[in-house]
Design brief:
Elements lengths: L7 H6 L21 E2 L13 H11 L2 H11 L12 H4 L2 H12 L1 E2 L10 H12 L5 H22 L2
Helix pairs in contact: 6-7
Length: 157
């Protein structure tokens, strides 16, 4: 199963015993990549106290507070400096996410990405279960994604 850190809490709440590992290395020796989504903080143009808002963002992103947030919530730290912290390094889930994040590509922040997941997941399932050859499954997914994005864009005009 391929999933992300957002799934950890629901799996645990359901009593599912699971492990986490980075995606494997491909036959050409390169590690598999994935998309990386991130959370961000912004200071609004209309903020009455931009300097204070900026200070707050800087404060909550200091390593000791990022670590405290991880311990309290399980939210994987977004700071590269935290990867080697023993609390992260010794946590199988957090360590695997940190390794995979270093191999990831930033996910485009566009509405069209919503049209990718269904066909991509179907292609993965069809190929892994042997119901369809990988290339055929991926070709079909690309066609479906393209059609859905074109329909989405046409409806927005």
């Amino acid at each position: 199963m391929i999933n992300g850190p957002w799934a950890f809490q629901p799996y645990e709440a359901a009593g599912i015993n699971y492990g986490v590992a980075p995606l494997p290395t491909l036959p050409d020796g390169k590690p598999m990549s994935s998309f990386l989504g991130v959370k961000g903080y912004v200071v609004s143009t209309w903020s009455k106290d931009k300097a204070l808002a900026q200070q707050f963002i800087e404060f909550i992103n200091q390593p000791q507070y990022v670590k405290a947030r991880y311990v309290a919530t399980g939210e994987i730290p977004p700071l590269k400096a935290m990867i080697d912290d023993p609390v992260i390094k010794n946590d199988q889930k957090a360590s695997a996410v940190a390794i995979q994040s270093a191999r990831a590509v930033a996910m485009p922040g566009i509405p069209e990405m919503g049209e990718v997941w269904g066909p991509a997941n179907a292609a993965l399932e069809l190929s892994l279960t042997g119901k369809q050859a990988p290339q055929a499954a991926l070709d079909n997914a690309v066609k479906q994604i393209t059609m859905q994005i074109e329909a989405m864009q046409a409806s927005n005009q």
